[in-house]
Q: What sequence folds into this?
């Protein structure tokens, strides 16, 4: 650890672990409900579990990005955070807002807008909290003479993510118009500016772990990320299929989302090439595994499986079915969850001074969670395709079909149990690392 | 002159961009072709509102501008900077003429009630040529930046000028496909 203030990253990462755990719990509640065991219905109905599951995901992704930024920015700019205490306060405020929202969902305090269920008063608190975060890292970057491409991309990605939260707050009484703006937030986050954040974290990890020259990695990785970002902007069109928006969105969405897998493939190939080129000198092999795995799994989950139902003619049948859940799970896992777990794996030994990456559970966590996620994706795929055939081709009633496919959720639960085993190993490792107490060594050594 | 594949004129990055743009445009052309095959009557009706003379003027403006940009690169390679700059300004002027004429033409279509969301033909027309126009505008910005810097203390490298001209040719190439798809009668 180079700077004292980097410790705050640990707080955000610990929050990630907590929210990740809760997310898995709510996932199981829904999987059991789908399989016919909905005993908790009275207290946690499906819509509550669904809102909690997805919002916990968004919250731990944001928490992970903030933690990553608080870790990376001091390192890249070579100075302490501008206001370390504010960072801790901002973490606490973030958790308070998150917990309030989560409890609120259980008392029907929500907006019912997919992924943006958080009620309006809390929206303003989220915006205020994120602005404090942006100010903190922005001021740190601004005051530093060292402005690396990685820190700038990370900063502007986070700033754009904060700004893009605002379209979701545009008031309207029209369902289609509401969806139109809602996707500005959701899509332009995950297939837009979050990819800039991802590019920056990925590039930081590759620079640190492979030892390949910063110039090479920064130049080409940002070119690839730029392509992903640009195709992603107009790719928003694939959320506007058949929801009441004009027909030309079929053309726009079809063409540009077909391009997205191409750049994801480029990212995967590039990460592999850099890992190969850099050799295997860095001792934290598991962190490199998560990094390269992230590039690969995001291609499979976001690129390939997204493409599988992004063509309008296909989407006419798959829109709003479990096929989306198939794509969504592996895309978020591959692109963002693995990325955050990667930066956690990289930074924990430096934060705590312990080298648990050599422990067998570290590799176990990676492989078992990934195999589990692949199996979950397959289970969703089988259930989704069956649902499409029965509901959209045969014309059976929605609830009748849900009953027909409930057996596939037994498979899903088994796969998810495997995944949970891997996730638990990761979290167990995180706990064993303990609190951040590594001596701060960097500044003096680096400046000599 | 032969050069290694890893060092194409204009640099690897611009070729990569051009390759990706061509893939994108290829999808756009395929889409238009499919729509044209599926709905011949609609296409016929739409094309009746387009003038092939206008299409030809668009084409000539673009390819002449492309030729001038190529001449500019050639002159710059021979270190004849003034000549290169004149060619670049001429290329920009024709590009601007294309944009102005295109806007004028579009205004006419809009006045006639043709707009986005009317039917598949006009959706394809406005989106396809609009996407092309966006590239022309980017190309014009790139050409201008290079043209105004030729006499600076640190003039752009030959590779940069070639890269910008390459992007400008991409706009020509894309138009070569849009022209027959929309203006040649089905």
A:
């Amino acid at each position: 650890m180079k700077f004292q203030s980097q410790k705050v990253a640990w707080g955000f990462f610990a929050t990630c672990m907590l929210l990740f755990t809760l997310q898995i719990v709510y996932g199981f509640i829904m999987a059991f409900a789908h399989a016919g065991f909905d005993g908790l219905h009275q207290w946690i109905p499906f819509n509550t579990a669904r809102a909690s599951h997805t919002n916990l995901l968004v919250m731990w992704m944001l928490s992970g990005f903030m933690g990553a930024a608080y870790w990376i920015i001091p390192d890249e700019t070579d100075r302490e955070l501008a206001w370390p205490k504010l960072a801790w306060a901002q973490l606490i405020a973030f958790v308070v807002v998150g917990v309030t929202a989560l409890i609120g969902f259980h008392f029907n305090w929500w907006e019912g807008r997919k992924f943006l269920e958080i009620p309006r008063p809390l929206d303003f608190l989220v915006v205020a909290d994120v602005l404090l975060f942006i100010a903190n890292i922005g001021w740190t970057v601004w005051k530093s003479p060292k402005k690396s491409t990685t820190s700038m991309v990370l900063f502007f990605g986070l700033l754009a993510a904060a700004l893009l939260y605002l379209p979701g707050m545009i008031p309207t009484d029209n369902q289609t118009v509401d969806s139109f703006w809602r996707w500005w937030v959701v899509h332009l986050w995950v297939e837009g500016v979050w990819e800039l954040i991802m590019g920056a974290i990925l590039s930081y990890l590759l620079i640190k772990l492979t030892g390949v020259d910063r110039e090479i990695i920064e130049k080409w990785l940002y070119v690839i990320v730029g392509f992903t970002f640009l195709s992603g902007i107009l790719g928003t069109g694939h959320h506007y299929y058949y929801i009441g928006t004009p027909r030309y969105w079929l053309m726009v969405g079809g063409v540009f989302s077909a391009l997205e897998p191409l750049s994801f493939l480029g990212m995967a190939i590039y990460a592999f090439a850099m890992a190969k080129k850099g050799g295997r000198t860095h001792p934290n092999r598991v962190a490199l595994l998560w990094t390269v795995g992230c590039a690969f799994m995001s291609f499979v989950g976001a690129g390939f499986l997204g493409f599988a139902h992004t063509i309008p003619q296909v989407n006419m049948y798959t829109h709003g079915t479990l096929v989306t859940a198939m794509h969504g799970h592996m895309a978020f896992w591959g692109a963002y969850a693995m990325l955050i777990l990667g930066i956690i794996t990289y930074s924990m030994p430096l934060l705590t001074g312990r080298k648990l990456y050599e422990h067998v559970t570290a590799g176990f966590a990676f492989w078992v969670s990934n195999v589990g996620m692949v199996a979950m994706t397959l289970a969703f795929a089988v259930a989704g395709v069956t649902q499409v055939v029965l509901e959209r081709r045969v014309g059976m009633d929605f609830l009748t079909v849900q009953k027909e496919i409930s057996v596939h959720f037994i498979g899903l639960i088994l796969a998810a149990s495997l995944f949970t085993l891997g996730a638990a190993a990761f979290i167990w490792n995180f706990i064993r690392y303990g609190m951040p107490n590594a001596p701060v060594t960097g500044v003096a050594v680096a400046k000599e | 002159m032969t050069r290694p594949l890893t060092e194409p004129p204009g640099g690897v990055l611009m070729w990569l961009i051009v390759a990706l743009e061509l893939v994108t445009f290829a999808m756009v052309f395929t889409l238009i072709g499919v729509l044209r095959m599926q709905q011949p009557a609609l296409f016929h009706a739409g094309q009746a509102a387009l003038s092939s003379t206008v299409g030809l003027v668009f084409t000539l403006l673009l390819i002449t501008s492309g030729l001038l940009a190529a001449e500019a690169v050639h002159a710059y390679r021979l270190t004849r900077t003034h000549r290169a700059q004149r060619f670049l300004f001429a290329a920009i002027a024709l590009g601007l003429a294309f944009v102005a004429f295109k806007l004028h033409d579009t205004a006419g279509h809009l006045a006639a009630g043709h707009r986005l969301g009317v039917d598949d033909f006009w959706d394809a027309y406005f989106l396809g040529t609009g996407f092309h126009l966006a590239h022309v505008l980017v190309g014009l910005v790139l050409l201008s930046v290079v043209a105004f810097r030729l006499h600076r203390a640190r003039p752009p490298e030959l590779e940069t000028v070639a890269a910008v001209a390459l992007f400008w040719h991409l706009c020509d190439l894309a138009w070569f496909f849009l022209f027959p798809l929309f203006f040649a009668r089905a």
